[in-house]
Amino acid sequence: MSKISLRCFSASLALIAASAFSACSSSATSPSTNSVASTTNQSKDMSEVKIMTLEPGHFHAALVQKEMYPGVSPKVHVYAPLGFDLTEHLNRIARFNLRADKPTKWELEIHTGTDSPERMLREKTGNVVVISGRNRGKIDRVNASVEGGLNVLVDKPWIIKPEDFARLDATLNTAEARNLIAYDIMTERYEITTILQKELIHAPDVFGEITKGSEQDPAVYFESIHHILKLVAGAPNIRPAWFFDVTQQGEGVADIGTHLVDLTQWMLFPEQPIEYRKEINVLAASRWPTVMTPDQFKRVTNESKFPDYLTANVKNNKLDYFCNGSMTYALRGVHTKLDILWNYEAPPGGGDTHVAVFKGSKSRLEIRQGKEENWKPELYVVASNTASKGEVLAALKKKIEALQAKYPGVGVEEKGDRIKVLVPDKYRDGHEAHFAEVTRRFLEYLRNPKSMPAWEKANMLAKYYTTTKGLELSHRNTSASR
Q1: Which of 312, 311, 337, 309 is nearest to 325 (CA)?
Q2: What SS3 string covers 111-178?
Q3: Considering only CA atoms, which of 230, 229, 211, 233 is closest in space to residue 220?
Q4: CA 431, chain centre distance (Å)
């Protein structure tokens, strides 16, 4: 293959020069096997997993490679056009390779050009595709990969509009028929307070039974607050301008809402397939923008003006970024409400926050991540009434004692009318570490496809049915502000 110098990408790639990456020009081609039969055989022989990364437009693509994995080739082929997205991805992998603590040893072979999806399928330099980037058209790239006999590990959301639901269904059916693994990166299942909250939901002496609630008083409530401006070492974390185009990135309900809907299903009805046609009823939804000035936009994108594709949402020289959404739905009769919010910047010392409330007949389980918690998620148990607090506390202590086998060191502490579940710092490994956990689970399924539970497919359909129906309903209830 012909080579091109990495210096032609960007001056910011100085780190990469030390990382032994090779780049393949867009005109270079290599022999490949294109038959369905040969790729199916390849997917069954997973003695060595070979990763291809397709158009990495989001930093989650790099987080899959934050660690090395046994049986996974260190050589990863990246297929992407030249530009900001590729530059940022290569810099992240370079930092993993160059860090002092447990550096990785990835070798990247870079295939540039405007025909990245087609070229990847033509060359087939691997048997697994990692996709994390622009969400518009993502399901087409996923479907083409599966049709080509490749396993896929894909960041959420797979679809951001109702019209693509049938395509998702067909893609999952194809993967199942061809014995391939098509897996959604659901990192929130690996967060420690969420894991413990799930344990307590299924401890009848502590929680009782989930209540049904109502549209006005839901039994399950999530609030997820994110911030557009994030500072890293005192400087803004630069986002690509396309991130603010909701037709490419998706709106709050269809994007962040994917995680929250997944958690509701996974926590309330573990290992149970959900029939979306019969067991989900989306009741209400709304959307509203976060308004950004040109100066605010420039600070987070380095762009001097709003690009033309955002013109439709620019009013009085300000951008209406429709990233906020609210949705209420019933899952097997359990009323659930989600609020997804994007503020421009966090309060001093603060960051993204997460609230998760589940109401049981004996107690209410709450994850809160505010100033009182020093912006770290903490789990509380609140008895349904004062008279039952002693009973709930005794049951909780017994349950926590039983959990020592899995999570040694967890404890309880009374805090007024609430009981706090104490979580040792050793379990707080952070959001980035959860990508490795998802990847390890994916690799388990890859080596033994029959080990992937059937409920994953059913509940993936249920999840995206819920989010896209919520999005559809929210467009009938658009407001200038909340």
Answers
A1: 337
A2: EECCCHHHHHHHHCCCCEEEECCCCCCHHHHHHHHHHCCCEEEEECCCCCCHHHHHHHHHHHHHHHHC
A3: 211
A4: 10
Contact yes or no for 296/303 (Cβ under 8 A) = no
Taking CA atoms, 343 is separated from 167, 237, 253, 375, in Å, by: 33, 15, 15, 16
Cα separation, 109 vs 77, whole angstroms: 5
pLDDT score of 399 = 98
- The alpha carbon torsion through 178, 184, 185, 186 (nearest 10 deg) reads -130
Coil/strand/helix, residue 420 = strand
CA angle 256, 228, 378 (to 5 degrees): 60
Instruction: Record the tokens describing residue 78, joined without a space.
Output: 């990246």
Does position 6 have pLDDT exceeding 70, yes or no? no
The domain locations on the chain are: 6-185, 189-474
- How many other C-beta atoms lie within 10 A of the C-beta of residue 371? 11
Q: What is the pLDDT of residue 480?
A: 75
CATH homologous superfamily of 189-474 equals Dihydrodipicolinate Reductase; domain 2 (3.30.360.10)
pLDDT tens for residues 258-294?
999 999 999 999 999 999 999 999 999 999 999 999 9
- Mean pLDDT, rounded, for 330-347: 96
Residues 419 and 238: their CA atoms lie apart, in Å, by 40
**Residue 100, class by beta-carbon neighbours within 10 Å (0-12 exposed, 13-18 middle, 19+ buried)?**
exposed
Q: For residue 9, which amino acid is it? A: F
Contacts of 103 (CB under 8 A, 6+ apart): 96, 97
Among residues 119, 112, 67, the alpha carbon closest in space to that of 87 is found at 112
**What's the DSSP call for residue 478?**
B
* Mean pLDDT, rounded, of the chain: 90
464 exposed, middle or buried (CB, 10 Å; 0-12, 13-18, 19+)?
A: buried
Phi and psi (nearest 5°) for 359? -100, 115
Give the C-alpha separation, 212 to 477, whole Å: 25
Give Cβ neighbours of residue 51 (< 8 Å, ≥ 6 apart). Answer: 64, 65, 72, 73, 76, 77, 126, 128, 129, 130
What is the third-level CATH fold of 6-185?
Answer: Rossmann fold (3.40.50)
Structure tokens at 340: 């997804």
Supply 422's token pair: 């104490």
